[in-house]
Amino acid sequence: AVVTRGAEGATVVSREGVWHLPAEPVEPVDTTGAGDSFIAAFLLARIAGASPEQAARAGVRAARLTCLHEGGFPQNGGLLS
After folding, report:
1. Which of 17, 34, 38, 59 has an alpha carbon within 20 to 30 A of 51's alpha carbon?
2. How far is CA 28 from CA 3, 23, 35, in A?
């Protein structure tokens, strides 16, 4: 299970363990889509073979990047790079 908690980060619970990851520091322009970005990056990482913790870290990074611009989608296409 994955629970995103906004500025409080995220929690992941799996058979392998439980991880509480803090949000990355950001001065947000707009938080629209940050949770969606987290989940997309998390799933992409898991499909690619990442552990739950590694996938959650990818999600936290993606959520932070989404908060740096107005609107729910990045304009430069670099969300997951």
Report:
1. 34
2. 20, 12, 13
Cα(56)–Cα(26) distance, integer angstroms: 17
Q: What is the CA radius of gyration of the chain?
A: 12
Residue 7 contacts residue 27 (beta carbons within 8 Å): no
Rounded Cα gap, residues 29 and 58, in angstroms: 20
Q: What is the dihedral of CA 3, 11, 43, 64, to 10 degrees?
A: 90
Give yes or no: 36 in active site.
Answer: yes
Q: What is the pLDDT along the chain (81 residues), one digit of tens a residue?
A: 999 998 899 999 999 999 999 999 999 899 898 999 999 999 999 999 999 999 999 999 999 999 988 876 655 555 554
Strands across the sheet with 10-14, in order?
Answer: 2-4, 10-14, 17-21
